[in-house]
Design brief:
It is found in: Cytoplasmic vesicle membrane. Helices cover 42% and strands 29% of the residues. By secondary structure, it is an alpha+beta fold.
Length: 103
């Protein structure tokens, strides 16, 4: 029951990618992470490397799913839309791991 209540209180999605140019003129790809918590929506922009750092920290406290690779075995890198979807799936799985470990 607690798990069901938590799953209805919080929703996380990565609906899009944004590009940002830093001071040096280098373009960065940022994932827009939206969190719906207690009927309020929040968002942050995060780079893939920040998700990797999160993964390393989560591995120390919960059993995490495998982190999605940036590489495709047949191509140099995965298409951005595929990476976005895989990161969203990863976050959803991590949330489920947290909910099940807390019950």
């Amino acid at each position: 029951m607690v798990q069901e209540e938590l799953s209805h209180m919080i929703e996380v999605s990565i609906p899009s990618l944004e590009r940002e140019v830093d001071e040096s003129g280098k373009s960065k790809k940022l994932f827009r992470v939206e969190v719906l918590f207690n009927e309020r929506k929040h968002y942050v922009l995060r780079r893939n490397s920040e998700f990797q750092t999160l993964h390393r920290k989560l591995k120390k406290i919960i059993q995490t799913p495998d982190f999605p690779s940036k590489r495709n075995p047949h191509l140099r890198t995965k298409p951005l839309e595929q990476r976005r979807q895989e990161l969203e799936d990863y976050i959803q799985k991590c949330l489920r791991c947290c909910w099940t470990s807390s019950t």
